[in-house]
């Protein structure tokens, strides 16, 4: 009776190892873009184009919008619903359009047109993501040494040039490092957010959607403008579906619910807690979470993470 048990156990180990490897790989390829959004998303709400004053009730409202945007659009829409609609295991907008065309008899041209439009929007995301992500990471240098501020854009441009030069050779060799680096990144942003959150734990109340509703009902125009920046927190969410054929539904869901989204929640709420304590911190809430002693290592890690996010998109 013992032999069959041993055989079954030995057969299960490689399968579990493979799932763990796929889940780790998904962290690097699938969640690179959305995982680096904390670098700029919350900052843009209050210190972006519209320069919304960081009053406490607005911070609570913005934190509530971020929480529910991540929950509704990514966790529920993509992870729990859209990922069920695979086309022979493949995901992505064109796979979805092809699946839809095969299921209907009418308006096939309309469906394919919508698929092409969706692909075009994804290309648009791919054009702006490398620039926004890398620049946001390098901007942390001005906190280390304000004298480096004039060099931020040239450094970001240099990184992007090298990135695109390397990209044409493929990312096979680099891909093995993507997952571990992003794992360290998610752990880092989670710890940074938690350290701030414990100082102002009352910000957790923002999980109540009424804070977002109150923001909209009290200041509809400002809330609408803030929402335009809030959507940045789900940049790259479509990768969960697009890369399903490469990693599988299970590993992607595991990585999202166990590692990625808890880290994102903690960091965004940590940034909100910081801005509640110090409204001036809205100028760069992510890097102001970082203790001065480790700012440079975090900037380097953030730059690596944004390069990985850019590689995954381009």
Total DSSP helices: 16
- Basic shape: globular
Q: How many domains make up the coordinates?
A: 1
* Largest sheet data: none
Assembly state: single chain
Whole-angstrom Rg: 21 Å
Note the gap between the termini: 53 Å
Mean pLDDT: 84
Q: Which segments are poorly predicted (pLDDT under 50) over 5 or more consecutive residues?
A: 1-13
Assign a percent range to the helix content.
over 70%
The helix-strand sequence is: HHHHHHHHHHHHHHHH
Indicate the structural class.
mainly alpha
Fraction of residues in β-strands: under 5%
Per DSSP E runs of 2 or more residues, the count of β-strands stands at: 0
Describe this structure in words.
This protein has helices at 2-29, 32-35, 41-47, 56-81, 93-103, 108-138, 141-144, 152-167, 172-197, 210-218, 220-230, 239-242, 244-247, 249-277, 285-288, 295-313. 74% of the residues lie in helices and 0% in strands. Helix 4 (56-81) runs antiparallel to helix 14 (249-277). Mean pLDDT is 84; it is low at 1-13. It has 16 helices and no strands.
Topology readout:
Blueprint: H1 2-29, H2 32-35, H3 41-47, H4 56-81, H5 93-103, H6 108-138, H7 141-144, H8 152-167, H9 172-197, H10 210-218, H11 220-230, H12 239-242, H13 244-247, H14 249-277, H15 285-288, H16 295-313
Helix pairs in contact: 1-9, 1-14, 3-11, 4-10, 4-11, 4-14, 5-6, 6-8, 6-16, 9-14, 9-16, 10-11
């Amino acid at each position: 009776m013992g032999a069959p048990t041993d055989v079954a156990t030995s057969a299960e180990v490689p399968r579990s190892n493979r799932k763990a490897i796929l889940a780790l790989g998904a962290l690097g390829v699938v969640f690179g873009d959305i995982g680096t959004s904390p670098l700029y998303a919350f900052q843009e709400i209050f210190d972006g184009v519209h320069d919304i004053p960081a009053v406490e009730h607005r911070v609570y409202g913005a934190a509530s919008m971020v929480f529910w945007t991540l929950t509704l659009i990514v966790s529920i829409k993509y992870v729990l619903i859209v990922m069920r609609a695979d086309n022979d295991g493949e995901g992505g907008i064109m796979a979805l359009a092809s699946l839809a065309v095969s299921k209907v008899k009418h308006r096939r041209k309309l469906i394919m047109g919508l698929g092409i439009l969706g692909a075009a929007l994804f290309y648009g995301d791919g054009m702006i993501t490398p620039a926004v992500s890398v620049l946001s990471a390098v901007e942390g240098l001005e906190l280390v040494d304000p004298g480096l501020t004039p060099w931020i854009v040239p450094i970001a441009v240099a990184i992007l040039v090298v990135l695109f030069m390397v990209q044409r050779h493929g990312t096979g060799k680099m891909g093995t490092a993507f997952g571990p680096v992003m794992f360290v990144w998610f752990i880092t942003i989670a710890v940074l957010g938690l350290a701030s959150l414990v100082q102002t734990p009352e910000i957790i109340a923002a999980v109540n959607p009424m804070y977002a509703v109150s923001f909209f009902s009290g200041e509809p125009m400002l809330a609408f403008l803030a929402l335009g920046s809030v959507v940045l927190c789900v940049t790259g969410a479509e990768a969960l579906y697009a890369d399903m054929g490469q990693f599988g539904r299970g590993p992607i869901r595991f990585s999202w619910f166990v590692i990625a989204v808890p880290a994102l929640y903690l960091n965004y709420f940590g940034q909100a807690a910081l801005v509640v304590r110090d409204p001036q911190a809205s100028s760069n809430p992510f890097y102001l979470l970082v203790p001065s002693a480790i700012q440079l290592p975090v900037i380097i890690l953030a730059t690596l993470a944004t390069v990985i996010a850019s590689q995954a998109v381009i």
